[in-house]
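Input record (one chain):
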Amino acid sequence: MAELKVGVIGCGGHAQSHFSMIENEPRMKLVAVAEMDADRLQKAQTDHQPQFVFTDFRQMLDQVDLDLVYVVTMPGHLLPIVLECLGRDLHTSIEKSPGMNPKETRQMLEVARQSKGIAIVSVNRRYKPEVLAIRKLLQERGGAVQVSADYHKPPSGLRRPGIREVAPPEIICDAIHHVDLLRWMSGRTPTEAAQATEVYAHSWHGDREGTPRYNAIITFDNGCRGTMMSHYGVGYRVQTAEVHAENMSAYLDLTALSKITLYLDGRKCETPLNLDAVGGTDFNETRHFADCILNDTAPWSSLEDLVYTMDLCQAIESGHQGQLR
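The corresponding structure, as predicted from the sequence alone:
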C-alpha cells in the first residue's frame, strides 16, 4: 500500500480534525509539522509524534521530502503558503475559506493550473457520508428542485483586533460551509456542484459586535432554487439543511452528529441510509484526497470549483441583487 508522506502547516484548532483523519488514513503518514506558536508546536509534537517539527514552514519544505501538505491557517495567511506549496509541485489541502476573497482564490487557482500537485479545499460537508447518501437519492430522482440551509451561531469573534485582519466576513470565513453545501446538493452529477446564476441577498449587522445576518434566495444553472439564512448572535449553534426532489424530502441536522429525516413517496423512510454505497461510515475528505492523488483525479472540492462558492459568498456578503456574471 502506498504511503504518502504528509506535512501540516498550522497546528491550531482546525488542524486537530485533520490530524485525526491523517492518522486514520492507512495510505498517509504524518512526517512533519510547522507552527510558529511554541505551545501549539509542542502540543502537536506530543500528541501526534511527527518525525520533524519546524517554526518556519519553508524550512520544512526545504528539508523534508513530502508528498502532500495540509495548510491549516487563518484565511489571511493562506495565500503565500499555498502558492509556495503548489509552486513546489506538492499536493496541497487548503483550509476554508481559500483566501480572504475570490481574487485570492483565483490567484491560487492560477498557480494550481501550472502545478503537478493536486489541490483540494477543505469544505468537509461535501464529504459527510450522510450528505453523500442523500445526494445520491436526489440524483436518482432527477436532482434537487429546492435546497435550503441555515447556519447560525452565537456572536462571532472574527471582528476582534488581531483576528479581523486575517479573517474575511463570516459568510466567507465560516458560513461558507453551508453556502457550499447548497451548491453541492443542487448538483446533478456525482462529481459536480451547481453554479449560482442569480442571487437576491440581504446582509446587515446587529447592534452587537460580531452579529452579522444574511439572507439569500439563489437560482442555480440547472433550475434548482436555494435559500440561505445565517445569523450570528442568535440563541445557539444550529447548522441544518433541507433538500427536495420529486416525491422526496430530506431534513439534515449537521450541528453535531449528523441526523437525517427522510421522506420518500409520501411516507417517512425508516430504512437506514445506504452509507456503504458512498464509501462507508468513515469516508471523509482525507480518504478522497488520497484516492485523487494515487489515481491522478480531480477532487470534488477543487480550487476550480470553489471559486464559484467564493463568488456566491461574496455576492451574499455584498447584498447582491440580480444575475451573477
